[in-house]
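hey so u asked for the seq, here:
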Amino acid sequence: MSEPTQHETTPDSPRTIAWCSWHQGLSGTARLVRIIEQASGPGAALYACASCREVFRLVPVADQP
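ran it, structure tokens below
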């Protein structure tokens, strides 16, 4: 049996869960879609789950040109 690669997960591997800023709940499919920069103080990062990305036509930051 082969060992899992980077993209495969095993039952024991940790799962990434983030807060979806659109439906206001935790999601295992959330991806970063907006970065809010501020002149002073910390900025913000907004994440959206797969369902909200589809409904609101949000493009993940990693996929933006």
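The helical segments are 50-55. The beta strands are 18-20, 25-27, 31-36, 44-48.
lmk if thats what u needed
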